[in-house]
Amino acid sequence: LNLLKSAAAYERLNKPRKLANSLLNMGEVKDLSKLHIEAIEYYQKALTINQSTGLKLQEGYALNNIAKSLIQIQKYNEAEQYCTKALNIALKEKFKPLLVNVYNNLYTLNKENKKFTVALLYHEKLLDLKDSLFDVQKNKQMEDLRAKYESEQKERENQSLLLETELKGKQLKVTRALLFAIAIFACIVTI
To answer: Are 69 and 40 in contact (CB under 8 A)?
Structure first.
């Protein structure tokens, strides 16, 4: 219900990009509810908006979601056409997260069509891509941890230097006080 209200508001406010995103979300909800034909209607509306606004990533997701729903209702030939269009966008624009979803749909589509060799090919591409994305993510996490460690190390060094400086300052005050006391004592003794 909230998605319908947000879609209506975005349409009223003439916010096509947000409207398309809401329509994609509404399609997802319908897909999860096994209402695949209704989901396709929402995805189609989102696709039309995304094509008119030039949002390639969103267009690719709309195409891929339509394909996913078509696979669910066993319209494999149509699903393959949408998958191919989504694949072309994902490859041309280098949208790796979209590519993961497209490879997954192509794997499922070919498995359902009993094209096991092609299904295996897409499954291998899917796993390779997931591994490379995982490696990139792990490398970034390792780099972040290294930077955090180095930052903490420098902070500890700074704290140590501050304590050392403070200690030397106190020692200097004590030394000065002793020298002053000795000087006064020497003056008193010489008098």
So the answer is: yes
Angle at which helices 76-93 and 96-112 pack, to 10 degrees? 160
Long-range contacts: 18-23, Cβ < 8 Å, 24+? 19/49, 20/45, 20/46, 20/49, 20/50, 20/53, 20/55, 20/58, 20/62, 21/46, 21/58, 23/49
Q: How many CB atoms lie within 10 A of CB 88?
A: 13
56 is written with which tokens?
């390639």
Rounded distance between C-alpha atoms, residue 73 and residue 39, angstroms = 11
Cα–Cα nearest to 101, from 82, 78, 114: 82
pLDDT digits (tens, 9 = 90+) for 11-33: 878 888 888 888 999 999 999 99
Among 176, 43, 190, which residue's Cα sits nearest to residue 105?
43
Which residue's entry shows tokens 């209200």? 5
| Nearest one of 54, 38, 119, 116 to 83, comparing CA atoms | 119
Where do we find the tokens 């909800």?
A: 29
At residue 130, the 3 state secondary structure works out as: helix
What predicted TM-score, i.e. pTM, was given to this entire model? 0.67
